[in-house]
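Run Alpha/beta hydrolase through structure prediction, thanks.
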Amino acid sequence: MFLSYKRLTQAFVCLLFLFVTAGAYAVETSQINSKYINETVTARVALPESYHHSDRFQYPVMLVMDGSTQFEHIAGNVNFLSTFSIVPEMIVVGVSAKRRLKHFTHTELAGYEGRSGGAQHYTRFLQDELLPELKKQYRISPYTLVTGHSLSGLYTSYLATHHADFINASISVSPSLWWDGFALINDIKAAEQQLEKPPVRWFVSMANEPNEMAEGYNRLTNVLGVKSERVFDWESREFPKETHDSAPLIGNVEGLKSIFRGYNAVPNIEIKSLEQLQAYYGNYAKAMGYNFPMSVHQYNVYGLKAAYEGELEWGVEILEKGVEVFVQSEILWDSLATVYSMNDDTESALQASNKALKLARQHQSKYLSEIEAQNIELKLK
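Sure, done. The structure for Alpha/beta hydrolase is below.
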């Protein structure tokens, strides 16, 4: 089935408020005393907008290196992209290292004894201290994505090539691959191990950067180009109009889109039934090695698209399944009210709208005025 651009535009105009959620994430802060790196680390945690719409739904975690400078824009972009089902909703965690040179390099360089080569200890901190602590506080699923820039991009490259047991995906923006005579690239040349799980999905990018930065990137892509996809599942991009400092913004957006390529089941104007969506994500799980359950925004977008194309039964079924999973979501209850009303089921529409209104008031929802407006309209029918 296909949704015309005219009909799609009309749907978006009528229900735009359901989709504009960029910047709407809650941030919490916690501190962890690490025995592995002998530091107290501050972690900033951005929860998805839908986090409190369910008591059981688990979210992948995205660990942002250099969190003091990179956390805000990455959390905002994850929030925006997930709203439109381009990537999954994730819990974004920003962590900062006091001793970047030591923590983000995996070899100790002559002249930097004691100040470099500590990546293994930093990895133990992330894996054995940070993530367990986060799991105590939040509903985190067993899917971990890491991202880093420059020296921390070298570190996320190290994780992608040395710790497939720990992470599932990695973004390396302008990585400092020149470190220690391109030591990491020399390691990759010898890498032939094949794990039972799919290889790490790895996105590497480079801006308009000269000398050893560009040389490292070129060496890396040449080495990866002759490796089997069973060893490395990678993509690379160059951004010639960006500098080293501006690259993280576009690099992380493109990296997220690359890693979760194919995630959106209806990326353009086509529509699918609930059964077709479930089959689609069943196949996607095989490709990713992890089952990503549908989120609030997927149920919402896919259900409304189906309804506005005239497949009201599809829309109702998708949204009813959505409120079954996310029983506390004012967004889904309000959309379900819309679709019931389109199907001339005013009684069910009002019941769903009343539920949406109650939840919106409890959550102090930014959608409250729009939900109230639909509720009033339904009561007047």
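The chain has two domains: 24-259, 274-380.
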